[in-house]
Design goal:
mainly beta, 3-stranded antiparallel beta sheet, 117 residues, single chain
């Protein structure tokens, strides 16, 4: 079957055309079939901290709020500095992979950290 009009986001075959735009009723994605696919743009994602600063691999961040840690009696205190973060793409919002001293490897949400120099 022709997959020319499959949804580029969810690859659904259940799509329809409305004027110049194709619409996917499953994920509600709309696209113009005459424009080139934006696959390169979807591979690169941007992660920002609580102040709106763009984060990159290897940055150092500081936790701005006391965070509870599952399976641990202690949590992460506000002001804890975390070095050498790695950015990961996730569906649940935990987009920073890091190692916290005294706790170990874990994932953090970028909304609870701020970038430090």
């Amino acid at each position: 079957m022709n997959n020319e009009h499959n949804c580029p986001k969810c690859n659904s075959e259940n799509t329809y055309q409305d004027m110049n735009v194709w619409i996917c009723p499953e994920c509600f994605h709309e696209w113009d079939s005459s424009e080139p696919a934006m696959e390169e743009e979807s591979k690169e994602f941007i992660v920002v901290d609580s102040n709106g600063n763009v984060l990159q691999h290897g940055d150092a961040v500081m936790v701005i709020k006391d965070l509870k840690v599952k399976g641990s009696a202690s949590g992460i205190k506000s002001g804890t500095k975390v070095k050498n973060i790695r950015l990961v793409e996730s569906n649940d919002g935990h987009n920073i992979s890091c190692k916290v001293d005294g706790i170990g490897a874990m994932y953090l949400k970028s909304e609870f950290v701020r970038k430090v120099s």
